[in-house]
Amino acid sequence: MSEFAQIPMQFVGPVKLSGPVINGEYEVPLATFETPLWPSVNRGARVSVNCDGGIMCTVVDERMTRSVLFEAPDASVALSALQRIKADFAALQTVVEGTSRFAKLINLNSQIAGNLLFLRFEFTTGDASGHNMCTQAAEVLMDYILERHPTLQYGSISGNYCSDKKATAVNGILGRGKYVVAEITIPEKLCRRYLKTTPAKLVQLNLRKNLIGTMLAGGVRSANAHFANMLLGFYLATGQDAANIVEGSQGLTMAEERAGDLYFSVTLPHLIVGTVGNGKDLRFVCENLERMGLNENRDPGENSRRLACLCAATVLCGELSLLAAQTNPGELMAAHRRIERKQ
After folding, report:
1. pLDDT digits (tens, 9 = 90+) for 313-338
2. Is residue 149 flagged as an active site residue?
3. CB count, 10 Å around CB of 218?
């Protein structure tokens, strides 16, 4: 019988969202041991409610991937096989349709290294994050390819060119999961009132800390303060595979001063989230998704896109609040002493 780890959870918000996918005010759940995260995200949420339009969320792209590995006698044979496989793309799409009601093969990328052939299959997966759906489709595709290309041999069902739960460049370049941008414009007076800072100070810190500091640290397609904090809390509360915060936290924070006001955005190129699948049948997860209105009967993929927008908006709220705190000497540690150490 399974046992459960007890992780504190609270709803924060409401957060105000707008955009093509979702509009309205929503409370969002965060499960975390870092208790200052709740009031911090809540401060960003309060800002969103008081701004015209709140947080604008745009889903730029969505796809889930699985890379497979074949072995050939040499690179020439691998290239010849690859050319024939690409020419057979329509047939590969038909093969995938037989594996699932929702999996659709939309693209194929490749790399040849020595005598090894890496294929990166890209799928849409409806409302599921798609890990198992893509692996099952990739397995059937491998069988189909091996049957028609006797010069190739099985290498692995996963060749790490996916790339799953690793900080790599390929996901940001080719896409994996939901690509979401969340944006907000905050009047200068609201920055002073709720964030206790100015647009100019926040813009400067974002440049120096998130961009220059991350560059000096050698960050991989990443320039943010703490995306991972909000992602972990949100993932655990909504039944996601928490290990996917590794690639999910690779993202960019931008801040600009516009006519005295603050433009602030977070770009998350690979959010791996879904509203159906493993983990979504747990009672607390079902209740959390229902409270966010994500249990309604919508077109395939719409609930998961709405979830991704809620996730991105939550990340923005926490990122905004932390950066604001770090513009003021002593504020960050004072909050941790007060909330965590009860001082």
Report:
1. 999 999 999 999 999 887 667 766 77
2. no
3. 7
In the 3-class helix/strand/coil scheme, how is 109-167 assigned residue by residue?
Answer: EEEEECCEEEEEEEEECCCECCHHHHHHHHHHHHHHHHHHCCCCEEEECCCCCCCCCCC
Q: Provide the domain count of the chain.
A: 2
H-assigned helices in the chain = 37-49, 75-87, 89-97, 131-148, 170-174, 188-190, 199-205, 214-217, 227-237, 245-248, 283-291, 302-326, 331-339
Say which of 164, 241, 247, 319 is annotated catalytic.
241
Query: What percent of the chain has a predicted confidence (pLDDT) above 70?
Result: 97
Say yes or no: 249 and 101 in one domain. Answer: no
Q: Which of 107, 126, 156 is the last residue of a domain?
A: 156
Q: Considering just the CA atoms, what is the radius of gyration of the chain in Å?
A: 22
Q: Are residues 150 and 16 in the same domain?
A: no
188 is catalytic: no
Residue 112 belongs to domain spanning = 64-156
Regarding whether 268 and 119 lie in a shared domain, the answer is no
Q: What is the pTM of this model?
A: 0.94
The pLDDT of residue 232 is above 90 = yes
> Which of 126, 156, 186 is at the close of a domain?
156
Q: Which residues, including other chains, have CB under 8 Å from residue 131's CB and lie 6 or more apart?
A: 64, 164, 241, 272, 277
Query: Which residue out of 71, 88, 226, 336 is catalytically annotated?
Result: 336
Same domain, 146 and 100: yes
From the list 177, 135, 173, the residue with the least C-alpha distance to 156 is 135
- E strand or H helix at 258: strand 252-258
**Given 27, 34, 71, 256, the catalytic residue:** 34
Rounded distance, CA 17 to CA 311, Å? Answer: 11
pLDDT tens string 169-220: 999 999 999 999 999 999 999 999 999 999 999 999 999 999 999 999 999 9
Judgement on whether residues 268 and 329 belong to the same structural domain of the protein: yes
Specify whether 138 is located in the same domain as 275: no
pLDDT of residue 338: 75
